[in-house]
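Worked problem 6 (solution included).
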Amino acid sequence: MSGSWDGAPSSGKAGREVPQPRSGMAGKITHNIGTGENAKNSIVWMTITWSFSIAGALSLLLFLVAAVCNDLKFIDEVKTVWSIFAPLITLALGYAFGKNK
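Solution. The predicted structure is:
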């Protein structure tokens, strides 16, 4: 039952055209990481960078706490920090350099 209230068929376009994306418009994520192969590589290198940054900052913090407290138990925690981030880094490097082209 399509038509107007008076029984005449409507001639509007609502719902008939498929929306088309605007060319040249990129989202925020696409703007930051790129598209296609560049996006894949960007994510890998961002993972490596953030992993090194966070693990390095936590290690530095633990060294400072160990120096202030004169307690070497915090030095053992550095090993725990790197046991979390080392697999992430090696996984990302393996993906980056082991891809088949």
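Discussion: The mean pLDDT is 78.
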